[in-house]
Amino acid sequence: MKSLKEIYKTMARKNETLFAMNFYNLETLQGLLKAAASKKRSIILQVSPSSLEYMGAKVIGPLAKSAAEEFNVNVWLHLDHAKKLETVETALENGFDSIMIDGSELDVEDNINLTKEAVALASWKNVPVEAELGYVAKLGETQEPGKGFTNPEEAKRFVSETGVDALAIAIGTAHGFYKETPKLDFELLRKIREIIPNTVLVLHGSSGLPDNDLIEAINSGINKINVATEFKDAFMTSLKKGICNSDEIDIRKIFPEAIENVCGIAEHKLDLLER
Question: Between 35 and which of 42, 138, 224, 267 could a Cys-Cys bridge form, CB atoms 3.0 to 4.6 Å apart?
């Protein structure tokens, strides 16, 4: 299997797209891998720093990769939204295939400097680095149209000075679920795609976006689509229902329906790559 570094070198040019899906435990991991196997698709498996701490850095890599072998699926393991270089180092030391350093809340100069340090660390392992430029609203926030959106010229400079392989951009999405349907700036996306044609472009905040928005994002140049909140919500909703409606004490009999719900959402997302 090719490294993600190799894959990224041609994805932008060929307008190819991968889904990057967050898992939180063995069961959510199983749901995602079951979907990937069903659809015969490679996926990026993601964990956040909080998941890294929860499951343990030494556990996550072997867990994800042995489970992927069991399902006969090609996966790459990615660290999402690391704020500290120490977290990046931990991921690299434990076999992660890709890392993201998130300096989006810093000013541009500090974001560039932090990202350059992460790229230097990752280069020793030949691991690709993702960064974020612009501001993708956090859970519960409402982003004003245009405010904090990625500037194409800044994106060009950022990529040139940092050497990142992938860039998460702000075009109107937000992390978490949406209170109302967002209006994405696809024209801005196309401008960024044109000005940095060889860089993988990443869409964060994809949970809850209408299918037609995701399809247009793919057609307009997005190469990596992150999905997290929908899987958490589906798993927990199913788990709560199962526990409340059962006297079962064997947790293994409660999990299957929750796993299937995660799988169903993941399968639907992967089907969008065919449209």
Answer: 267
DSSP assignment of 228-253 equals -HHHHHHHHHHHHHHHHT-----GGG
Is 126 in contact with 3 (CB distance < 8 Å)?
yes
Contact criterion met (CB below 8 Å) for 109 and 154? no
Computed over its alpha carbons, how large is the radius of gyration of the chain?
Answer: 18
Range of the domain at 193: 4-274
Give whole-number Cα distances, 154 to 112, 127, 169, 264, in Å. 11, 24, 11, 38
Alpha helices in the chain, H assignment, sequence order: 4-14, 26-39, 49-55, 57-71, 85-93, 108-123, 152-162, 186-195, 211-219, 229-244, 255-271
Q: How many domains does the chain have?
A: 1
**Largest separation between any pair of C-alpha atoms in the chain:** 59
CB-based contact 270:67 (threshold 8 Å): no
Give the pLDDT of residue 178: 62
* Nearest C-alpha neighbor of 105 from the set 93, 96, 114: 114
Q: How many other C-beta atoms can be found within 10 angstroms of the C-beta atom of residue 235? A: 23
- pLDDT for res 252: 86
Residue 251: the pLDDT is: 80
80 is catalytic: yes
- Mean pLDDT of each 10-residue bin along the chain, 275 residues long: 94 95 98 98 98 96 97 98 98 98 96 98 97 79 66 98 97 76 92 97 93 97 97 94 82 91 98 90
How many beta carbons lie within 10 A of that of residue 191, not counting itself?
18
Q: What is the CATH number of the domain that holds 11?
A: 3.20.20.70
Residue tagged active-site, from 80, 97, 185, 213: 80
